[in-house]
Amino acid sequence: MENKSQNSNRLINEKSPYLQQHAHNPVDWHPWGDEAFELARKLDKPIFLSIGYSTCHWCHVMEHESFENSSVANLMNDAFISIKVDREERPDIDHVYMSVCQMMTGGGGWPLTIIMTPDKKPFFAGTYFPKESRGGRIGMVELIGKVEDVWKNNRDEVYKSADKITNYLSDMNKLPGTGGLDDEVFEEVFSTFTRMFDTKNGGFGTAPKFPSPHNLVFLLRYYNMTGEKKALDMVEETLTQMSLGGVFDHVGFGFHRYSTDPEWLLPHFEKMLYDQATISNALVEAYLVTKKEYYKEIAEKIFTYLEKDMLSPEGYFYSAEDADSEGIEGKFYTWKTAEFKKILTDDEFDLYSTAYNISDEGNYEHEATRTKDGTNIPHLSSKLTELNNEKLTMLESIRVKLHKIRSERIRPLRDSKMLTDWNSMLISSLALAARAFDNPHYLDLAENAMTFLRNNMRESDNKLYHVYNEGRSEIQGKLDDYAFFINASLELYNSTFNADYINLAINTNNYVVQNFLDNENGGFFLTSANDEELITRPKTNYDSAIPSGNSVMALNLIKLSAITADMKFKLIAVKIIDSSAENVRQNNMSFSYMLTAHIYNISPSKELIITDGSSTTDKFKLAGKITRTQSTNTTVLYLNKNEKNKLTGLAPYLSNYPVDDDKTLYYLCENYNCELPEKNLEKVIEKL
């Protein structure tokens, strides 16, 4: 018998939406903290650690089956001290124990289930467990009994196993340097991408299919470096097929998390802010390379969704929207034919059903039953290029009508917390899109979000915080927060030529070097030297759903070195890349963003220094014009009298560039050779 207790547990005082979801479970949940571990030691019980996030479908399933079930809860309360962690609040804890799960089981995911000793050392790991054993998967009831038995009767073996796992984990996180990367690595990873590419549907591999936009950004950089047309073709086909499929929300816009099939049709319906940020960035980059309006249109639709549904009154962006509503995954987003016919005229239905593949049979195969029941996910078979303007206008009118009706449904849960790293990713994408599309509104959105971060998530000593939800959490910023924040600052400089952003980037970078750098082995730890001590100090250099903090920091440092002419930044970046070399050689597709940084590092340098004595220059227009024509590895610095005064302390060599009244000059340097100043921007752009 299932019963959702109305009595609250210790999670009731937590701000995390995910922890709040479990605050009324009959499981006696604790938040992560000293109190729980001290109680486990006092009562001589193992820890049951459950890690998830608010929009995780299988987290909801496990909660419903087991954590809301009073009989299972009673067993857990007798056997364990149970701790709940929001992976988005504590990515450091998640990283440590996800590494354990992958090491012990060969896989991972959420919900993440760890059983460990009171001193935080794991001895069992897994993901989702049903209530009762089925299909070869042990159930919670049986699992609890087995753990109780081994804890009581075989304690020595438990501790030996836990120590062995912990020691291995510590060794794994050292990432020692193993020599640099040669140029052949680019051809090797390109060959891997080519081999894995789905020539029919775009993307890489079969199913499930994840967007992984950082892979597309690498391929664009590879195309720029080599002229290899196949690299660009893979990017274009992937972005096109993703935007046609059901993984894109054709009614309300934005991308769902991933596709459960090879065709990008059947999505896992949650929407994550980081996906919107990274996919929109790849679309903008593709637009800059190809100048095809289609990529611009899809990126703009993502921004439309974000501004309408995910923008807070304070200017930051919320984290995610759930896959489920009314307990059913995808219910908010799917349609029956009868619903369309009730809403649309006959002509509208004929046009829309043909364009978006709507049928009485439906195309949504429910995951639980593997059957179709007439439910449809609107999707396109190809671009709507053959339709005339009248039909395109009609389709947009239909979309608006459907969106209005859909907005009256019960919405999926929105995770309203603000994460510094995810917001910084979006700031970068908005800033790039602003100048790529000549749209100052996107720059306003980016600067408003950055203003919020600077005012609420940053201390005067450049320390950052990770989470904001009805007030700032005191959870310290992790490497990703700093890496993406620095990247956002640099992108904002490229859109505004406001030297304050370079100053912000350098000061934040110096904090990272001081508090996160592994001086012995190279690279940065995930946590600050001042942060909570876990069983190991985690460090990662491989990309997951987003680029790794070490990859982003490598690129940041190379850019800062070019801006300041200070080689110490570049030397740290090169050591990051070198320390990753052996891992790159073993699994190159998982290091595409590290290789993007490496391309930037080895490419011929270009610097464009603009001295401007005019008081009427539209800096945003100038930045946009350069962005739409320049190569990706050009460092642009703008000096009027005000900005020069701010920059010379950071980059002393800039004091040698005079700013003459009413005169704009362009100094172009390439591969350590500088040309005479040029007055004509168009001639400079030709050379870029």
Attribute tags:
26 helices; alpha+beta; globular; 49% helix; 20 strands; disordered N terminus; Glycosyltransferase; Glutaredoxin; 688 residues; 4 domains; five-stranded mixed β-sheet
Structural class: alpha+beta
Q: Per CATH, what is the topology of the largest domain? A: Glycosyltransferase
Percent of residues in beta strands? 5-15%
Counted up, domains total 4
Strands side by side in the biggest sheet: 1-3-2-4-5
Averaging pLDDT over every residue, what do you get? 92
Q: How far apart are the termini? A: 70 Å
Number of strands: 20
Q: Please write the CATH class name of the largest domain.
A: Mainly Alpha
Radius of gyration: 26 Å
- Helical segment count: 26
CATH architecture of the largest domain: Alpha/alpha barrel
Largest sheet: 5 strands, mixed
Low-pLDDT ranges = 1-5
Helix content: 40-55%
Shape: globular
Please give a quick description of this structure.
The chain is an alpha+beta fold.
Descriptive overview:
The protein has 688 residues and is an alpha+beta fold. It folds into 4 domains: 10-172, Glutaredoxin (3-Layer(aba) Sandwich); 184-324 and 415-602, Glycosyltransferase, CATH 1.50.10; 333-408, no CATH class; 606-687. It has 26 helices and 20 strands. The strands form 7 sheets. It has a 5-stranded mixed beta sheet with strand order 1-3-2-4-5, sandwiched between helices. A 4-stranded mixed beta sheet has the order 18-17-19-20. A 3-stranded antiparallel beta sheet has the order 8-9-14. Strand 6 and strand 7 form a beta hairpin. The longest helix is centred in the first third of the chain and has 18 residues, at 155-172. The relative contact order is 0.08.
